[in-house]
Amino acid sequence: MDISSHPLLQQCYSACLAIESIPASEQQTFASQKANELLLSINQSISSQPPAIGHYWNGKGGIYAGIMRDGDRQWHLILASETVEPVTEDKYQIANCAFKGTWGQYPNKIDGEFSRNDGLHNTQLIIAAEPENNLALNITSLTIDGHTDFYWPAQCENNLLFINLREHLTQQWHWSSTQYSARYAWFQHFAVGYQCIDDKYTSLAARAVRRELII
What we know:
Blueprint: H1 7-20, H2 26-48, E1 56-57, E2 62-70, E3 73-80, E4 99-101, H3 119-129, H4 134-140, H5 155-165, E5 173-179, E6 184-189, E7 195-199, E8 204-206, E9 209-214
Helix pairs in contact: 1-2
């Protein structure tokens, strides 16, 4: 436990030390036990709350991007913190991208209703239809902070990343998991926020995200 991470933890820890300095007695032991339970409870509560947008969320696998909404469902969106250098440069000058590649098979319209907001749903559709899809498989194979539930962000999740985490993103074209047609899928440029569709055979960057549901 990092006592210095929050003023409430510091205050509670000081109270625990003060209680432990009292001469031993049955009452002192009881008070010390309850103070330490309170300290643990406060730490757990603080850990479950997101940090400020743009900061690493300890234990959650990445950088906090804000709240995403799809109908009645809401979730905290987290950008995976891992990035790797590309093996070779290409005409798109993609650097510091966690992943890059083609969107998928071309031309091939994947059955199902693709979402502009829910990348987890889209990723599941893609993997079910194209089990060898490299981008989807690489993204979902990530494990960070013990979490294995990373997915390929949808069109509007990419936009939330652009709005709130621009400084953490390579300013190049990035695929979303949102299909447009048999030939095209949506992408976003993280320098200017521009969104459009491109041929699925085009090699672009992609990032991984995960979510914490808001109940």
